[in-house]
């Protein structure tokens, strides 16, 4: 009960926080960063940091925040062709989260696992129930980048749906919005200005203020990560909540045994 009350209180605070959030575009973030750095001269020749440098700081923060929080998950559909062994992964792919073939979940396997199971797994054919990721850059079946393959090699026409963490696009024009413009992340836009200010203060050896803005950034990203990854009754790992699945299966066993008797 205490845990639920604690979560409910945190949710209330979050709702209040989110309701006060507003969207910051790239131009807004640059302005905020200049204010924090006290670098607000309108004459570019009198500015310590050109716009391009501040934009670079902001984009570095954008990427680091995204990778820590897993804020935006993308998806892509791949048409499987009979006899094709491997398929290119998206250019912006950082990590695969979930894969299905014709709406059926398939599990990830490593090369070492597949090698131990069978010495001929690379030529097995059938319906793919597992997948693997090839992370080297060698050319395989005409594919010259990171690839995904199924085991066994599919012998039917099918659609593979891949959910993945994507590398965020750089903020380039003044109207660009962080985190794919998703409204639920509006309250956290300010974190990027904190990050850029930290980088700027470090560049000019203003270490005390740099430490302060780094702490502000880390606190906001921790909250963003918590709200992005957690639910009131659901806190998954990268590969799914295996403990919860085991508990559900164990609780179902007595009922199944009673039905059998």
The main sheet comes to: 7 strands, mixed
Strand order of the largest sheet: 1-9-3-4-6-7-2
What's the number of helices? Answer: 7
> What class do helices, strands and sheet pairing give?
alpha+beta
Distance between the termini: 36 Å
Characterize the structure shown.
- Helices cover 43% and strands 18% of the residues.
- The chain starts with a helix and ends with a helix.
- Strands 1-9-3-4-6-7-2 form a seven-stranded mixed β-sheet, with no helix packed on it.
- The longest helix is centred in the C-terminal third of the chain and has 23 residues, at 207-229.
- The model is unreliable at 3-20 and 236-249 (pLDDT under 50).
- It is α+β, with helices and mostly antiparallel strands and 261 residues long.
Set down the secondary structure blueprint.
Elements: H1 2-19, H2 26-37, H3 51-69, E1 73-80, E2 86-88, E3 93-101, E4 104-108, H4 111-117, E5 125-126, E6 130-134, E7 147-151, E8 153-154, E9 158-166, H5 190-203, H6 207-229, H7 242-260
Parallel strand pairs: 4-6, 5-8
Antiparallel strand pairs: 1-9, 2-7, 3-4, 3-9, 6-7
List keywords for this structure.
261 residues; alpha+beta; single chain; 9 strands
């Amino acid at each position: 009960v205490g845990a639920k009350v604690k979560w409910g209180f945190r949710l209330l605070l979050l709702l209040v926080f989110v309701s006060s959030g507003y969207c910051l575009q790239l131009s807004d973030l640059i302005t905020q960063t200049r204010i924090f750095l006290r670098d607000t001269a309108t004459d570019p020749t009198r500015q310590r940091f050109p716009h391009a440098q501040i934009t670079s700081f902001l984009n570095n923060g954008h990427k680091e925040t995204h990778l820590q929080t897993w804020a935006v998950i993308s998806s892509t559909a791949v048409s499987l062709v009979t006899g094709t062994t491997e398929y290119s992964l998206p250019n912006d792919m950082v990590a695969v989260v979930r894969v299905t073939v014709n709406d059926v979940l398939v599990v990830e396997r490593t090369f070492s696992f597949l090698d131990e199971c069978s010495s001929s797994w690379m030529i097995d054919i059938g319906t793919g129930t597992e997948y693997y990721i090839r992370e080297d850059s060698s050319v395989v079946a005409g594919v010259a980048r990171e690839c995904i393959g199924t085991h066994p090699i599919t012998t039917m026409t099918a659609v593979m749906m891949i959910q993945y963490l994507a590398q965020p696009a750089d903020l380039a024009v003044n109207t660009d919005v962080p985190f794919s413009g998703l409204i639920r992340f509006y309250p956290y836009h300010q974190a990027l200005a904190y990050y850029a200010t930290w980088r700027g203060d470090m560049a000019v050896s203003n270490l005390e203020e740099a430490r302060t803005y780094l702490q502000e950034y880390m606190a906001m990203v921790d909250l963003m990560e918590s709200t992005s990854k957690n639910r009131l009754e659901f806190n998954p790992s990268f590969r799914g909540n295996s403990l919860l699945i085991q508990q559900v299966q164990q609780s179902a066993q007595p009922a199944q045994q009673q039905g059998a008797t």
